[in-house]
Amino acid sequence: MSCGERLAKELREQGYRVTPQRAVILETIAHMDGHRTAQEVFRVAGERLPGLNLATIYRTLDTLRAASLVDLFDDGGGVTRFSMRDPEHQHGHLVCRNCGKTLTLDPAHAASLARKITRETGFQISLDHLTLAGLCKACSRAAEEAASSS
Asked: Which residues, in sequence order, are CB contacts of 89 under 8 Å at separation 6+?
């Protein structure tokens, strides 16, 4: 079974129709490395399916997220990125609010934090795609230097 066939089967199992647009968009995301913007998906999928429009990309990405096939990732700068959901390789992100640098969060750290929060509050954290915002080492150092020189 090809990648596209497997993904289409998963989409059907979630109760969604597999249209040509959905199939191409889903397969495009699956074959793109990392986290991609809707514009990037539009550019690549549009090469395979001329006439595809950006509104269709956004609607399909929402559908794929609802079907638990893709994850959203907000880069902290107002840009939403998408990637295939991979339950076998959960990961998170550390995003610098100042420069936008993104680091991968070790799943063990995220799991430890989630367990602590659950013990203290009873709240169950979803670790499918955790994003934490703050300052990277360089921006934090620059902020400290600026504060000490004032």
From this structure: 107
